[in-house]
From TrEMBL:
Domain of life: Bacteria
Residues spanning the membrane: 57-76, 152-171, 432-450
Membrane topology recorded in Swiss-Prot or TrEMBL: Multi-pass membrane protein
Protein name: Cytochrome c biogenesis protein ResB
Location(s) in or outside the cell: Membrane
Organism this protein belongs to: Amycolatopsis alkalitolerans
GO cellular component term of the entry, any: membrane
Alphabetized UniProt keyword annotations: Cytochrome c-type biogenesis, Membrane, Transmembrane, Transmembrane helix
Length: 502
């Protein structure tokens, strides 16, 4: 047990870097930024797996050793527990007056009457009645076996919790995705594979090919803010399909809120946050139009001033070299509640009130054919550095306003949509974790509240004329908890008075 406690302390100590340092599975960009900012120290921590603590070799080793130690502790203790549960209460000591609690009196009842009353009073106790020398008879009684039972439940629940967590790391997965909140076809997310997610963190035994299918459609999003612009409530009216609904095309309504996730198909869908999607229409010189709505990310969580990049391929251009000279990207800032000071656009509140964009229109090669993945929020800065992507216009636009490029291309700012950020979590062991956690609390309560105590009763005929019975009552608390003195006094009073309280 001492080894288990040391390992439990080491496990808690080893988990501290996972809380204090950014973790790569949760936030890769922030982790990379931290390593770059701290030079050799950050690189050393990375080599020592401090940015992936809970999957590190040293954390797993402590975890495994703790489990082995608990098993090695509980096995012999379980056998001892079984033996103690089957054992009878100990014999009545020869000299009861040496017990911490002792009472003696001579009563006007026969030994049989005293013993009968004692049996009734000690009902529920584990008792053994014995014949002794000199015509004396005794009862040994013990109670509080649930204390050790609670202790065993507590420690086995800890072991079960550790195993459940370990299995959960193998079969759990978690994914994040951004979905438009318009109620249209672009507002439907289906849990059909990892390609549907923007980021996906699988367990060790999850390859993403056997996800439980379900679909979610985001109809709208609403938020409430304080006067200072701090959010107080997020909610989204959604519809979802799972199971047989996928075959029948039935959609069920649900109000998705921050602390009220959708639970379906064994998964939980959480509402994490939201943002805005500027809508741009590009009218090319030949009259062809293309409308694009790409999510922009908030760079200020108070005012929701957002940045992003909406990208367009030129229509009707089949030559790859020519296409790479005419691709467009509309980058810049979006302000839901706009305020311009000295020509600089900013936002004063997160609500959608007088939205504007400050755009830089980039033309050239966006690097979409390079084979490298790109963030939807950014352009490839290496193309800018090489001169293959150049800025051709810059302007602030309100809804309905437009800008015309030097080749006659017209770009208009048509409006704004909202998007929501969802997180889908799957953990098949969560019910077991909850069950073991409840068992831990129940076992801990039993081991702390239940008192192990013993009572002995000895009766013998009184000396002399034989009238009356000498009754001796002894008591011993097998724990250091207070309170047994009062209980023993009550029991002794009832045994000495035949069940009548004084």
């Amino acid at each position: 047990m001492r080894t288990a406690l040391v390992l439990l302390f080491l496990l808690a100590l080893a988990a501290m870097p996972g809380v204090m340092l950014p973790q790569r599975p949760l936030n890769p960009p922030k982790t990379a930024q931290y390593i770059a900012a701290h030079g050799w120290w950050g690189t050393l921590l990375d080599r020592l797996q401090f940015f992936n603590v809970f999957s590190s070799v040293w954390f797993s080793a402590i975890y495994l050793l703790l489990m082995v130690s608990l098993v090695g502790c509980l096995l012999p203790r379980s056998f001892e527990y079984i033996r103690s549960m089957r054992a009878k209460p100990v014999l009545t000591p020869r000299n009861l007056s040496r017990m911490p609690h002792f009472r003696e009196a001579t009563v006007e009842r026969s030994p049989s009457d005293v013993l009968a009353a004692a049996r009734a009073r000690l009902k529920g106790w584990r008792t053994v009645e014995r014949e002794e020398d000199g015509g004396a008879r005794s009862i040994s009684a013990e109670r509080g076996y649930l204390r050790e039972t609670g202790n065993m439940i507590f420690h086995f629940a800890i072991l079960g919790l550790i195993i459940a967590f370990a299995l959960g790391k193998m079969y759990t997965y978690e994914g994040q995705v951004i979905v438009q909140a318009t109620g249209g076809q672009d507002s439907v997310f289906c849990n059909s594979g990892i390609y549907a997610y923007d980021s996906f963190n699988p367990g060790l035994r999850v390859d993403g090919t056997d996800l439980t299918p379900f679909c979610v459609k985001i109809n709208d999003f609403s938020a409430k803010y304080t006067a200072a612009g701090e959010p107080t409530h997020y909610s989204s009216d959604i519809e979802y399909q799972s199971g047989a609904d996928l075959q029948t095309g039935t959609w069920k309504p649900y109000l998705l809120e921050v602390n009220s996730p959708l639970r379906t198909a064994g998964d939980r869908t959480y509402l994490l946050g939201h943002g805005y999607t500027p809508i741009f229409t590009v009218t090319y010189p030949n009259g062809e139009k293309r409308t694009q709505a790409t999510q922009w990310r908030p760079e200020n969580q108070t005012t929701y001033l957002s940045d992003g990049a909406t990208k367009f391929d030129p229509p009707g251009v089949t030559n790859a070299a020519e296409r790479r000279t005419k691709e467009l990207a509309i980058t810049g800032l979006f302000a839901p509640t706009s305020f311009i000071h000295g020509g600089i656009l900013t936002s004063t509140a997160p609500e959608l009130n007088n939205p504007m964009v400050a755009v830089d229109v980039m033309r050239g090669d966006l690097g979409l054919d390079s084979g490298r993945s790109q963030s939807i929020f950014d352009i490839d800065q290496s193309m800018v550095a090489d001169g293959r992507l150049k800025r051709v216009a810059r302007q602030n636009l309100a809804v309905g306003q437009s800008i015309t490029l030097d080749d006659g291309t017209k770009i208009s700012f048509d409006g704004v949509q909202q998007w929501v950020s969802l997180q889908v979590s799957h953990d098949p062991t969560q019910d077991y974790v909850l069950g073991f956690a409840i068992a831990m609390l129940a076992g801990l309560a039993g081991s702390l509240l239940v008192k192990r105590r013993r009572v002995w009763l000895r009766v013998r005929p009184a000396d002399g004329d034989g009238n009356g019975t000498v009754v001796q009552v002894g008591g011993l608390a097998r724990t250091d908890q207070a309170g047994y003195g009062e209980e023993f006094t009550r029991i002794a009073d009832e045994l000495l008075t035949g069940g009548k309280r004084k």
